[in-house]
Design goal:
alpha/beta, Rossmann fold, 5-stranded parallel sheet, two-stranded antiparallel ribbon, about 15% strand, elongated
Length: about 290
């Protein structure tokens, strides 16, 4: 596989901020600074915050800007090492055993070698011939036992396979761990990481995100949409709208050729900006009261 050229420009928080912007990610100085420190210190970056505020997109944009291949592990309940770290190619091992005329003792050492090893995302990220970006998404969905398996990788940049020994990283990957805080992560894992909390954006930053995503949007419509979303997040909702949902709502408005936040725009918000029936009722009632915007 051909390697994309890694960015060679002198790295700084400012160049990171501008570089990410080229790939569609608008970040503030605080995010750019922590990202810069994580790279210089070769430390994993643990990113927490509400769903949909751009945690995953930060890893993707960084990968594109730095010219590194993205290796992504999407976490889920029940995830184990065979899906995350490695497993043995049992079919290939069986064929090898059948093809050999030797007894088990003589072939046992041959089948537990690299040619029979299937690398999953964690192992793949450190055995790649080129530097990678490892994105471990929604780490809070797995149990503490799986989280403990990460400690060797994040602390020593190596993975131990019982049958063959320890595999050290050819290149230290840039690691992004994301969490929606559905559970508290262990202190042992946190000690190995730098920490970043991404909250809902300020009105100025969210407006800038809209302008970047939709270059032809009317500036006044972008400003009104931003103010509206900021007000919606102040309501007593089951789930406040994320940046991703703001983008969906504004895109729906543009498709419907709406130029202002009116009743039709609110109706669109009930199916794009909000995802719960009760929240939609709260929004409609508040909008009709006329004492809000």
């Amino acid at each position: 596989m051909n390697r994309e050229p890694e960015t060679t420009a002198e790295l700084s928080p400012e160049t990171l901020k501008e570089g990410l912007k080229l790939y569609g990610y608008i970040c503030d100085d605080a995010i750019a600074t922590v990202l810069y420190l994580a790279e210089k210190m070769r430390k994993p970056l643990l990113i927490e915050g509400p769903a949909g505020v751009g945690k995953t997109e930060l890893g993707k944009a960084y990968s594109a800007f730095r010219g590194r291949r993205l290796v992504r592990l999407q976490c889920y309940e029940g995830l184990d090492e065979t899906k995350a770290i490695y497993e043995w190619n049992y079919k290939k091992q069986l064929l090898y055993i059948q093809a050999e005329s030797r007894d088990w003792q003589s072939v046992e050492g041959d089948i537990f070698t690299e040619q029979f090893l299937l690398a999953r995302p964690l192992l793949e990220s450190i055995t790649s011939p080129w530097p990678t970006v490892l994105l471990v998404d929604e780490l809070d969905k797995v149990d503490q036992e799986f989280e403990a398996m990460l400690l060797e990788l994040l602390g020593d940049w190596q993975i131990t396979i019982p049958e063959t020994g320890t595999i050290k990283a050819k290149h230290t990957p840039a690691v992004f761990l994301t969490s929606n805080r559905s559970r508290e992560l262990s202190e042992a894992l946190k000690r190995r990481c730098l920490y970043l909390y991404i909250d809902y954006p300020t009105p100025e930053r969210e407006r800038e995100i809209l302008m970047k995503k939709f270059p032809g949007i009317d500036q006044e419509l972008a400003a009104r949409a931003t103010r509206f979303v900021q007000k919606v997040r102040e309501l007593d909702l089951r789930k406040a709208p994320s940046v991703a949902e703001t983008l969906d709502w504004v895109e729906a408005m543009l498709i419907a050729n709406l130029s202002q936040v009116d009743q039709k725009a609110v109706e669109l918000a009930c199916s794009t900006l909000l995802k719960h029936h009760r929240d939609a009722d709260v929004l409609v009632e508040k909008f009709r009261s006329g004492r809000w915007l």
